[in-house]
Amino acid sequence: MPNTRGISVGIASAIALVLLVVAALALSAYRETISPWTSTPTETTTTSITTGPTSTSTAPTASTETRLPAPDLQLTDVQGNVFRLTDFGARVIILTVLRIEDEPSRLQLEELKSTGKTVDPQEVKIVLLDYHPDDSAEELKSYLTQQNVTWTAVWDTSPNVSQAYPAPGTPTTFVVDKQFRLASRFVGLVTSSELEATVSRLLRE
Are residues 87 and 71 in the same domain? Predict the structure, then answer.
């Protein structure tokens, strides 16, 4: 005769395990919704390093309550100047991770040039960051000269740099608010109009 009590205990244990898994998944989903990148959606395009634009997704501008402090780094630009990101004061910072001779990065430079013409440099600072080991500071400097770009640019392969501003692909653009908090991250090509709208919102805060 089957042990009905044993079967009941086994079923109860299985149900308890399923409920535990469901609760864990729910907690994970809740944490994701309050992450700085998932608070308020704005459009961005996901771009592959080697193949260019691949898909369209949403990347948010975080609400002021959920923004995390931006990592502050001491860096040396391609001109040999040592600085910290906090040296730029109460300005909005557009920090783009890119690569030399990378077509999506070149397209991003063009969008940044358009943005640079519409913003006040006393209110907005554009910084370029390259940490790819196949590039170099001299190559980056030469490349940007060819592109008629004079913004602050850094080549630095230190792990703390790539960990502070991780890029799943190039270009990846971070926008830091006036209180030096991470407000947005765009993975892939972001248009000048999207950047200008993001910056305009942050400047009004």
Answer: yes
Q: What is the dihedral of CA 56, 60, 61, 67, to 10 degrees?
A: -140
Contact 144, 128 (CB under 8 A): yes
Indicate the DSSP class of residue 170: S
**Nearest-angstrom CA–CA distance, 71 and 69:** 6
The position carrying tokens 């557009």 is: 94
C-alpha–C-alpha distance, residues 171 and 190, integer Å? 9
Instruction: Give the range of the structural domain holding residue 8, as residue numbers without chain letter.
Output: 1-33
Helix (H, G, I), strand (E, B) or coil at 47: strand
Residues 136 and 187 in one domain: yes
Return the closest-CA partner of residue 154 out of 90, 107, 87: 87
pTM value? 0.71
State whether 24 and 46 are in the same domain.
no
Are 38 and 32 a contacting pair, CB within 8 Å? yes
133/199 same-domain check: yes
Between 61 and 46, the higher pLDDT residue: 61
pLDDT band, very low/low/confident/very high, at 5 (cuts 50, 70, 90): low
- 28-48: pLDDT as tens digits: 332 222 223 222 333 343 333
**H helix count then E strand count, the chain:** 5, 9
Contact of 95 with 60, CB cutoff 8 Å:
no
Whole-angstrom CA distances from 137 to 99, 105, 121, 133 are: 11, 16, 24, 10
Residues 55 and 147 placed together within one structural domain of the fold: yes
